[in-house]
Amino acid sequence: MQAYYEIEIDIPNEFVALQPVNEIEHDIRLSYALWLFKNAKVTLSKAAELAAMDIYAFIAECKKSEVPVMNMTKAELLEELAGMNRR
Prior knowledge:
Layout: H1 13-16, H2 21-38, H3 44-50, H4 55-64, H5 74-86
């Protein structure tokens, strides 16, 4: 069983009135998951889990936010693929 921590954030009423609370919660979770993933603090699957999204939806959010999903240069990727073809 996984433990959970509740974090409380004070947001002025004028900002909460801009959208429903559940959307604010989703946006905060997504933003934090993107930050953690971008800074290599968690894996792609863990970030997607935190954002309460499937991995494909999270990858789409990464693309929208310009967060690279793969940390490889084009040359490194081509070299990796070439090595796979030799096996």
